[in-house]
Write a structure and sequence with these properties.
Blueprint lengths: L8 H9 L3 H6 L22 E3 L21 H6 L3 H17 L4 E3 L22 H16 L4 E7 L12 E3 L2 H8 L1 H10 L3 E4 L3 E3 L4 E3 L4 H11 L6 E3 L8 H6 L14 H8 L5 H17 L23 H14 L1 E5 L13 E5 L1 H4 L19 H8 L5 E5 L16 E2 L8 E6 L5 E7 L7 E2 L7 E10 L3 E9 L2 E6 L2 E7 L4 H5 L8 E8 L4 E10 L1 E2 L5 E3 L1 E6 L5 H14 L2 E7 L20 H11 L3 E6 L14 E4 L7 H9 L31 E3 L8 H7 L16 E10 L16 E9 L5 E10 L11 E10 L4 E8 L6 E3 L4 E3 L3 E8 L5 E10 L2 E4 L2
Parallel strand pairs: 1-2, 2-3, 3-5, 4-6, 4-28, 5-8, 10-11, 10-25, 25-26, 26-27
Antiparallel strand pairs: 6-7, 9-27, 12-16, 13-14, 13-16, 15-23, 16-21, 17-20, 17-24, 18-19, 18-21, 22-23, 29-30, 30-33, 31-32, 31-36, 34-35, 36-37, 37-38
């Protein structure tokens, strides 16, 4: 059945003119946390949004709702495959419709400017071209099935520290060539239906303002120069003004109702501070979005019903796609001993070792979080894949988390009823009980939904310590609270902030305070009470946060490491899984360093010494230092792999799927070599002093040697690069001014799979511009293509190098220009492994092979 024709702008403007000012303004802020207002007189039903960089979380209406958990965006980027990215976007669209979601707040096209950025895992790459190319593919997949993408976070919002306050200071050329570049590319190639303005601000040398108020970048560049016709949406609770944000180009303030818009915005229009035509344009943009996602019908007197979710369960085919993305994105960094892939011959025992082997880190924290419909651990994946006669043992080798595990439900008893769990009494302002519940968990983080009559929540439980010895208790709460143990206060807080607790993520990652408790041979019982004042977070709702954590007496990390090394020595093969966890990589805070948490480096070294057939797997989204990398017989980077983690790793280890990933960022060998070691604001400013030299470009400029370079990855086979030929590309008829179109170059690369197995290769092209005094990069990624071939097969890869790769931004002329001179194109396997070189001479703006 064909989709009905969408109403054109003439019709939409006619509808807008029929509304009064107050009705129009009402549409410019959310009706709640995730939904926009409906307006029957326009034929407009409620548009529903959802977080989604690693899946589609949904709206939270059903607290038990689960969903598909995909690998993190950096894992997808490691595949360097636009077709795979587009398929994943299509899957996100299917999942969105399953949950009644119209717009997914993804993809994220900020850059991995510093490896300690808290949301590094949520970004695709340190490179603008790789980021833009893959993000455009995800958008195409989403929107091909009628679900809108929301491209974010516009712009230069590349770190988390003080993210709602800082200004990124960068010059116009750096903005244009690096940080605006992926936004412009995605807009040109995929036309996303919405764009999100960041929390932070930008000082571009002409205007310094929050992004929700940045007239020059939002109205003049995004909407004007680039012709973007959809709404600009605020990040959640990012709107800090009425007039400045309305005039600056913001169209939709979320979540809602936003008190700074609504009536104040209507009053500003009546006072002549905001032109009503701006309001009309904002409503028009929202109607375009609604029309594109199927939420606009003929105007009528009654409410337009919202289409119900599609009630279908995830399919095996969808699980297989997530498994494929995780496996193909896995990067084989090193295999000096030719251990991989494993064969069943001669292997009778495998020791699976490491804190992340026991508790894999599948997804980053914050808005990317999705309650997974299922998770497959590394142990489950290997047990399912290995022959039945192969013994698999599992050993933690020490805990890498600083925080204790949540108190076990079986140790918690409601003091009133004797039931398992923690009793919550809901109290009004006078202390009267007006409701309550019992929950069998020590984690009350982000429990929300309290009505205005509930002023406090009193949690009470009896904790039974069954083992003799020293027990450790930790408590974490946010806001105003008091914690007592056996009637004695041990912790208190007096933070009366509201939404700020959400924006800094302390509502789900509160500071912890611990105490030691001695238990005798008969054990011990403790009466715990947590008195919590309900936090009012505006559009995020009213909530309390409480965590009760407990660790019984047990072995030391060094004892666990010794036990793991002994198990490795006794096994035919040792697989060590190390990495980060939810304390390290999350929205809301940046990392403090690049070291693996806990005693993991010592664990790896002990296991390698115990067994020369050791495979080390790194389960992390962002770079970590691997001081033992040159000692590891085999080394894999497995990212934050999503729900199918165990199956994907088993596929790679046993040779069912090639780990054809390539690094989308540079892995440092030493922290002191990192070009941008942190992004902490100084006096409210994050200074992008490195200019256009971001990521691998800075490593090349400074002549530094990383542990593994950008683009590196081995795969299962070997490749001979044989020849490269060049030909010009015509101007794109569909988008002659796009950064990807117009007078670029096509490279045809011939190569042969000379190894013993079928495989995929990512053919990478790096442009070396003439050093003409304009601070050009030493090299920049100019194009790539992914091909596959059987053993001995000769294939050709077609790589397009866009005209933009040759250009620089001329600030004086406010235009792009191509400096004349001789350019080299290096074709190879990474930024540091060229195999072929071609030269191009540019004169009079034209490019042709050098003679």
């Amino acid at each position: 059945m064909s989709r009905p024709a969408l109403p054109d702008d003439t019709e939409l403007r006619h509808r807008v003119r029929g509304l009064d000012l107050d009705s129009k303004v009402r549409l410019l802020t959310g009706a709640g946390l995730w939904r926009l207002p409906a307006e029957p007189r326009l034929g407009l039903s409620a548009v529903t949004m959802s977080d989604g960089p690693q899946g589609v979380r949904g709206t939270g209406d059903d607290p038990d709702e689960t969903g598909l958990l995909a690998p993190a965006p950096s894992a997808l980027a490691a595949a360097w495959d636009t077709e795979l990215a587009e398929r994943l976007g299509e899957l996100f669209a299917t999942e969105a419709r399953r949950k009644g979601v119209d717009v997914v707040l993804a993809p994220v096209v900020n850059l991995q400017r510093t490896p300690v950025a808290g949301r590094h895992f949520e970004y695709f790459s340190e490179d603008p071209l790789l980021t833009g190319t893959l993000a455009a593919a995800v958008v195409r997949g989403l929107q091909s099935r009628g679900v809108g993408a929301c491209l974010k976070h516009f712009v230069a919002n590349d770190s988390e520290t003080d993210r709602t306050e800082y200004r990124a200071r960068l010059d116009e050329r750096t903005l244009r060539e690096v940080y605006l570049a992926p936004f412009q590319q995605v807009l040109a190639e995929a036309e996303p239906w919405s764009v999100m303005a960041a929390y932070s601000g930008v000082d571009d040398g002409t205007e310094s303002a929050r992004m929700t108020e940045h007239t020059r970048l939002v109205r003049e560049v995004l909407k004007g120069e680039w012709g973007y016709d959809g709404p600009v949406v605020s990040d959640w609770a990012a709107t800090r003004s009425t007039v400045a944000s309305a005039v600056g180009g913001l169209d939709l303030a979320m979540p809602g109702p936003e008190p700074l818009w609504g009536r104040p915005l209507a009053e500003a229009v009546r006072a002549g501070e905001v032109d009503e035509q701006l309001v009309d344009d904002k409503v028009l943009r929202l109607l375009r979005l609604a029309s594109r996602v199927g939420r606009l019908d003929e105007p009528g007197p009654a409410s337009v019903p919202t289409a119900p979710p599609v009630s279908t369960a995830p399919t095996p085919e969808e699980f297989r796609l997530l498994r494929e993305v995780a496996a193909r994105g896995t990067v084989l960094l090193r295999d000096e001993a030719d251990l991989l892939p494993l064969t069943s011959d001669g292997i009778r025992s495998v020791a699976l070792i490491g804190p992340n082997a026991v508790a894999p880190y599948l997804q980053g924290g914050g808005s990317a979080y999705v309650p997974a419909v299922r998770t497959v651990s590394y142990e489950e994946g290997l047990r399912a894949a290995l022959p039945e006669d192969v013994q698999l043992t599992v050993h933690r080798g020490g805990d890498a988390r600083l925080r204790l595990p949540y108190a076990s439900a079986e140790l918690l008893t409601d003091p009133d009823s004797g039931a398992t769990g923690i009793r919550a009494d809901h109290l009004d302002a006078e202390g009267n009980r007006i409701g309550g519940e019992i929950r069998a968990t020590g984690d009350w983080t982000t429990y929300d939904g309290f009505g205005p009559a509930i002023d406090r929540v009193l949690l009470r439980t009896e904790l039974t310590l069954t083992q003799p010895g020293t027990h450790r208790l930790e408590f974490g709460c946010s806001g105003r609270f008091s914690v007592s143990v056996d009637g004695e206060e041990v912790l208190a807080g007096e933070d009366d902030r509201g939404v700020e607790l959400v924006l800094e993520s302390s509502h789900n990652h509160p500071p912890q305070r611990g105490i030691d408790i001695e238990a005798g041979p008969e054990g011990r019982k403790l009466a715990l009470a947590l008195d919590l004042t309900v936090v009012d977070a505006g559009g995020y709702g009213r909530f309390v946060t409480a965590q009760v954590r407990h660790a019984p007496p047990g072995p030391t990390p060094y004892e666990e490491i010794a036990e793991a090394a002994a198990a490795a020595q006794a096994a035919d093969v040792a697989v060590v899984v190390v990495g980060t966890n939810e304390e390290v990589e999350s929205e809301g805070w940046d990392r403090t360093g690049l070291d693996l948490p806990g005693h993991q480096n010592e664990l790896v070294r002990k296991v390698i010494a115990a067994n020369p057939r050791t495979i080390v797997v790194v389960n992390a989204g962002a770079p970590v230092l691997l001081p033992w990398a040159d000692e590891a017989p085999a080394l894999l980077w497995a990212w934050l792999p999503g729900q199918e983690a165990g199956h994907a790793l088993a596929d790679v280890l046993l040779g069912r799927t090639e780990p054809s990933g390539r690094l989308p960022w540079t892995l440092p060998a030493r922290a002191e070599d990192v070009p941008v070691p942190d992004a902490r604001p100084r006096d409210g400013i994050v200074d992008y002093a490195e200019g256009v030299h971001v990521g691998h470009r800075a490593w090349d400029r400074d002549g530094l040697v990383p542990a593994f370079p950008f683009g590196h990855g081995l795969g299962w086979t070997r490749w001979a690069y044989e020849s490269v030929t060049l030909s010009p590309t015509p101007v794109s008829a569909a988008s002659p001014t796009s950064p990807a179109g117009g007078d670029g170059l096509n490279l045809t690369v011939a190569l042969t799979n000379t190894g013993p197995r079928a495989g995929r290769e990512v053919v990478q092209v790096y442009l070396e511009p003439p050093q003409d005094g304009s601070d050009r990069q030493v090299r920049l990624l100019a194009g790539f293509a992914t091909i596959q071939a059987a053993p001995g097969e000769r294939v050709t890869a077609e790589v397009r190098v866009p005209a933009r790769a040759f250009e620089i931004w001329d600030g004086e002329a406010s235009a792009w220009r191509t400096p004349p001179g001789r350019y080299r194109l290096h074709v190879g396997r990474s930024s540091r492994e060229p195999r072929l070189t071609a030269e191009v001479t540019v004169d009079d703006g034209r490019r042709h092979p050098a003679v």
